[in-house]
Task: inverse folding
């Protein structure tokens, strides 16, 4: 990556730093939302400010993924290397998400967040849009969601895939294009130079977009509190605490253990990512921090071609926080309705979530859609999801943080597996970061 193609925090000669602005916006959003709770007529005036920020981020995600992968794969140079990255990445993703699902089942059995809750006294949210997505996903072309996903990786129209933000087809085309660029040798140098310049421009745009982040954060949080109010959390406080606690445990113990095996301090990684985690938490969107995550993981010692391949793939296949949440929520609903699941049934639940979470990777509202599909398949009152939709935004904020940490660490794991993790570069970056 050229010196220009590095995401810098917007420089300010004076005033409040961007991370501090985001934190202030988060607090103000909660306060203003609480004061305006119930005034849903104002939502349509506030929500657009958040949507504008999200649209700006979505606008640059596909160009960054495409250009980064093309340059990186062209640098890697051969299909054998790319194939090795691929199977190692997918194997790691499958193992770590399965651990997340299993951990969620264990926590739900220990703390039983759904026990003793009277479902009739909980306000119901609208899950109709998620039900529609689940029904659409259920009508698979080949009768198997996994096969549909595999076939769907190959785009019939790359422009359409880019326009719809479908990362898997974009990744496939980018890798293929990069291999072709490497294969034609010197003839491809002008094309490679073009993409390097293109990437510099996109990262400059990213820097400008991030200046708008505090406004977007304020709008997202404010609208959430206006719609549901802080009181929506009280009846489901135990669920929120179990989800939050399990996610902290997963980051510190599970991901921390993986990091330790790779000779990385998980707390160093968290400190480097603290600003991005705050932004991801506030917006409930991993996409908002994708460009910065890629930049920081490269600075932390992972090779550019590994970062460019693993991070976008992880945004589809390595949703640790979502997997953890889905298993807890499924058992929460079962407990709330008094449905007892045997050990065998819980193992079936684990296996079902493993399949549905991968098979519906590109479906909007994946976490809820996966839950609806899984609960329906196991006859565990799918309508119960309407009872937790009120705090789903808060739970989504939690699982987004875990998704970001998991995807960031995955690049370091694959780099370590390839014996290409530059510890000295990572150490110097952390020390320079810690001095700020």
Result:
């Amino acid at each position: 990556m050229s010196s220009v193609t590095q995401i810098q925090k917007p420089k300010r000669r004076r005033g409040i730093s961007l991370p501090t602005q985001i934190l202030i916006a988060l607090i103000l959003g909660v306060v203003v939302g609480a004061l305006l709770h119930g005034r849903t007529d104002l939502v349509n005036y506030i929500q657009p400010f958040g949507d504008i920020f999200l649209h700006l981020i979505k606008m640059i995600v596909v160009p960054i993924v495409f250009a980064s992968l093309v340059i990186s794969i062209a640098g890697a140079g051969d299909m054998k290397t790319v194939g090795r990255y691929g199977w190692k990445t997918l194997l790691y993703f499958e193992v770590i998400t399965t651990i997340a699902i299993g951990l969620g089942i264990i926590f739900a059995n220990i703390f039983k967040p759904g026990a003793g809750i009277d479902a009739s006294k909980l306000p119901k949210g609208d899950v109709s849009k998620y039900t529609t997505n689940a029904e659409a996903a259920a009508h698979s072309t080949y009768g198997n969601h996994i096969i549909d996903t595999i076939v769907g990786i190959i785009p019939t129209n790359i422009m359409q895939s880019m326009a719809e933000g479908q990362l898997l087809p974009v990744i496939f085309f980018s890798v293929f294009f990069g291999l072709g660029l490497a294969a034609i040798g010197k003839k491809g140098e002008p094309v490679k130079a073009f993409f390097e310049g293109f990437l510099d421009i996109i990262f400059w745009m990213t820097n400008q977009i991030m200046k708008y982040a505090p406004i977007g954060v304020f709008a997202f949080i404010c609208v959430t509190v206006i719609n549901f109010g802080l009181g929506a959390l009280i009846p489901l406080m135990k669920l929120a605490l179990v989800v939050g606690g399990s996610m902290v445990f997963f980051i510190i113990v599970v991901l921390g253990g993986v990091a330790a095996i790779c000779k990385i301090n998980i707390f160093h990684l968290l400190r480097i990512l603290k600003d991005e985690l705050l932004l991801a938490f506030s917006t409930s969107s991993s996409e908002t921090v994708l460009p910065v995550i890629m930049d920081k993981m490269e600075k932390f010692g992972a090779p550019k071609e590994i970062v460019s391949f693993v991070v976008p793939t992880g945004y589809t296949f390595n949703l640790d926080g979502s997997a953890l949440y889905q298993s807890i929520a499924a058992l929460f609903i079962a407990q709330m309705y008094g449905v007892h699941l045997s050990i065998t049934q819980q193992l079936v639940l684990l296996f079902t979530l493993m399949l549905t979470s991968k098979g519906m990777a590109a479906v909007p509202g994946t976490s809820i859609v996966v839950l609806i599909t899984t609960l329906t398949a196991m006859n565990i009152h799918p309508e119960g999801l309407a009872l937790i939709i009120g705090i789903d935004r808060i739970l989504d904020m939690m699982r987004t943080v875990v998704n970001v940490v998991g995807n960031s660490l995955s690049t370091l794991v694959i780099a370590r597996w390839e014996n290409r993790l530059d510890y000295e570069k990572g150490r110097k970056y952390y020390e320079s970061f810690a001095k700020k």
User: Anything to note?
Assistant: The CA atoms of residues 5 and 203 lie 6 Å apart.
